[in-house]
Amino acid sequence: MLLWINGAFGAGKTQTAFELQRRLTAAHVADPEQLGYGIHRMLPADQRGDFQDRPQWRSGVVETLAQIDKHADVPVIVPMTLVDADYFDEIVGGLMGRGVDVRHYALTASVDTIHARLRRRVRAVRVLGADEAWAMQQADRCVTALREKRFATHVPTDNRTVVEVVEFIASHAHLDLVTPRLNAFRYQLHRLAVGVRHVRI
Q1: Residue 112's CB: how many other CB atoms inside 10 A?
Q2: What is the reported pLDDT for 191?
């Protein structure tokens, strides 16, 4: 089973993916951004646009995730913003066409909520020099696109914690959460550690 966690930048995809992995104890997080960063590192700086626009990224994501799913005996969790309808159909449709059991979840929230989360994220990791200006600019586009039926299952998150989102997804996908919730202090440490590991500088 492949769980695609979609959502605007700042919607909570990465936190949801790693908390879900922690609660399942046997799961793998596969981040397609890493393939995009690899492509960017091979290109001159003036050719580094949105890596999602590159056919080799899209085909590479399908091929890589299909191979992971074929050989994995645990759920594969994919935290990735994917709001272009054609790219979504190419990638998610391509995976389904390869026989992958894709469960897609779009974390939805208002633009104001997304902006507030991005500002908190910057404050939390300011020492690393994080810059979320680009993510802020994408909020309207992403929030609007993800309202489409194509991007169901929708998971409203304005008034849900990450823990509640994880528990909803697990229940919807019929997955048993083995590991219990963390206490408030340990949970905040876990969130900070995940955030620092995945900050863009």
Answers
A1: 11
A2: 79
Q: Report which residue type is found at 106.
A: A
Question: CA distances (Å), 68 to each of 76, 100, 115, in order?
Answer: 8, 10, 34
Query: Cα Rg for the chain, rounded, in angstroms?
Result: 16
Q: Is the pLDDT of residue 201 over 80?
A: no
- For the whole model, what pTM was predicted? 0.90
Output the six-digit token pair for 5. 């966690």
Number of residues written out for the chain: 201
- Exposed e or buried b per residue across 63-81, where buried means at least 16 C-beta atoms within 10 angstroms of its C-beta: eebbeebeebeebbbbbbb
Spans of all domains in the chain: 2-188
Name the class of domain 2-188. alpha beta
Q: What span, in angstroms and rounded, lies between the C-alpha atoms of 76 and 82? A: 17
Question: Would you say 61 and 71 are in contact if contact means Cβ atoms under 8 Å apart?
Answer: no
Query: In angstroms, rounded to a whole number, what is the distance separating the alpha carbons of residues 13 and 80?
Result: 7
Write the CA distances from 187 to 17, 21, 76, 181, integer angstroms: 14, 14, 22, 8
Question: Hunting for tokens 């489409």 — which residue is that?
Answer: 148
Do 56 and 39 contact (CB within 8 A), yes or no?
yes
Q: Quick check: 8 and 114 in contact, CB under 8 A?
A: yes
Answer yes or no: is pLDDT of 56 > 80: yes
